[in-house]
Amino acid sequence: MYLIVGLGNPENEYSNTRHNIGFWTINEIAKMNNIEVNKNKFKGLFGTGVIQGKKVILLKPQTYMNLSGESIKEVVDFYQIKENIIVIYDDIDTEKGRIRIRKKGGAGFHNGMKSIVENMKTIDFSRIRVGIGKPEFKNDMINYVIGKIPQEEQEILIQGAKKAAMAVEEILKNGIDIAMNKYN
Q1: What is the distance between the alpha carbons of residues 58 and 69, in angstroms, rounded to a whole number?
Q2: Active site residue 110
Q3: Catalytic pick among 19, 60, 129, 162
Q4: pLDDT along the chain (184 residues), means of 10
Q5: Whole-prediction pTM
């Protein structure tokens, strides 16, 4: 079984922000595979299904970004998932609309990832970073990640989420190494 997690913030006011690109990606994966992500448990919204012949759980933690690890830990403990975890999240160090896949690694400066590493007590899980670019001014970071997205940028970010969804399909079909070669 695979746990596929998209990071974001739960309220409508955040739904169209750069920080919610993980949620956008889960929505895209769900749409592509006819999976409803509407069960409310584990401090998150989740749905189950089959993608590329593999059982999956799609999860959108509802704890707010900085506590995402709490929701993931509950799912992992309940389903006894030891590996096969993919986390999708926004990345300011990657160009808008591009994605980067890694087998494992540290949390960097991303608070959602810090929460996951802290709660899971490991860095051994796959991740797909979806590029959102950097703000013009570094001290404008919070407004940049949770603020309104200009119309001309929206389509680029949507394409990034779609690319990340296709990368998840590739990981499930052919493995992470092939997905990294194809998308990185």
Answers
A1: 15
A2: no
A3: 19
A4: 97 94 98 98 98 98 96 97 95 96 92 96 96 90 93 95 98 98 96
A5: 0.96
